[in-house]
């Protein structure tokens, strides 16, 4: 009998979530492109524009997976650190992109980042905050490692505001996505978790409130693909001048 595939649940045990992503790492990017109908590339481009990376900056790309988003950021000439808590994803990223000189890969827990205070000009996380067992703690950690005046960009699945469109979206996730996932993924059960975690994730206003609670200011968001995804942006307050 073949072993049961590793499948996370809404308890989001870090070891199970990490193990699940280890299993799907080799085909992860291709599967995402198929299941998102190619929209993942549009979302990545929008995130890169929002981060606005520039040469001379240091940027943390958290939950970077195999590094597709990190490569897009590194194209600006900025120094990019791709961090993920899945060893399998990090290994696959190094295999694919290890030759890029201004891109490095680090295994890291979003709730206890292995970086100094004020280490990055910008931090970004795409489709990863939803998988963290303590997302508010992760937002606080990202604030800690960002320089005063630096930026955060969070790209995450969200809740479409249109009731009619949301119904179509749920039908796709509940009925179509599982069938397609079985044909293109080595661990279709992982995408059952994906669907569950999207349903359980809060709406745009709630995530914005979490960011403010963590200490971020100038919090704003805009919807992508009718609200399937939301792009949240904020700034770390500048330090107060010495008195």
TrEMBL record:
Pathway: Quinol/quinone metabolism; menaquinone biosynthesis; menaquinol from 1,4-dihydroxy-2-naphthoate: step 2/2. The keyword S-adenosyl-L-methionine applies. It is an enzyme of class 2 (transferase). Keywords: Menaquinone biosynthesis, Methyltransferase, S-adenosyl-L-methionine, Transferase. GO terms for biological process: methylation. GO terms for molecular function: methyltransferase activity. It comes from the Bacteria. Pfam families: Ubie_methyltran. InterPro entries: SAM-dependent_MTases_sf (IPR029063), UbiE/COQ5_MeTrFase (IPR004033), UbiE/COQ5_MeTrFase_CS (IPR023576). It catalyses: a 2-demethylmenaquinol + S-adenosyl-L-methionine = a menaquinol + S-adenosyl-L-homocysteine + H(+). Its EC number is 2.1.1.163. CDD domains: AdoMet_MTases. S-adenosyl-L-methionine binds at residues 66, 84, 109-110, 126. Belongs to the class I-like SAM-binding methyltransferase superfamily. MenG/UbiE family. Methyltransferase required for the conversion of demethylmenaquinol (DMKH2) to menaquinol (MKH2). HAMAP family: MenG_UbiE_methyltr. NCBIfam families: MenG_MenH_UbiE, PRK00216.1-2, PRK00216.1-5. This is Demethylmenaquinone methyltransferase. It comes from Microbacterium terricola. The lineage of its organism: Bacteria, Bacillati, Actinomycetota, Actinomycetes, Micrococcales.
């Amino acid at each position: 009998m073949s072993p049961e595939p590793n499948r996370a649940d809404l308890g989001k045990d870090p070891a199970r979530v990490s193990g699940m992503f280890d299993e799907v790492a080799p085909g992860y990017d291709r599967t995402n492109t198929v299941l998102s109908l190619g929209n993942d590339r549009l979302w990545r481009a929008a995130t890169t524009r929002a981060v606005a990376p520039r040469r001379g900056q240091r940027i943390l790309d958290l939950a970077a997976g195999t590094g597709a988003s990190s490569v897009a950021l590194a194209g600006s000439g900025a120094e990019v650190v791709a961090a993920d808590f899945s060893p399998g994803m990090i290994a696959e990223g190094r295999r694919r992109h290890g030759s890029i000189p201004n891109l490095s890969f680090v295994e890291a827990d979003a709730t206890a980042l292995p970086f100094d205070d004020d280490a990055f000009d910008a931090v970004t996380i795409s489709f990863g905050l939803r998988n963290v067992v303590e997302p508010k703690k992760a937002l606080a950690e990202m604030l800690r490692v960002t320089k005063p005046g630096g930026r955060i960009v969070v790209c995450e699945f969200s809740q479409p505001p249109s009731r009619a469109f949301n119904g179509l979206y749920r039908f796709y996730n509940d009925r179509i996505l599982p069938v397609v996932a079985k044909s293109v993924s080595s661990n279709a059960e992982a995408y059952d978790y994906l669907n569950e975690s999207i349903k359980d994730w809060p709406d745009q206003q709630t995530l914005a409130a979490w960011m403010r609670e963590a200490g971020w200011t100038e919090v704003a968001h805009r919807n992508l693909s009718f609200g399937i995804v939301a792009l949240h942006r904020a700034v770390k307050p500048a330090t107060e001048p010495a008195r």
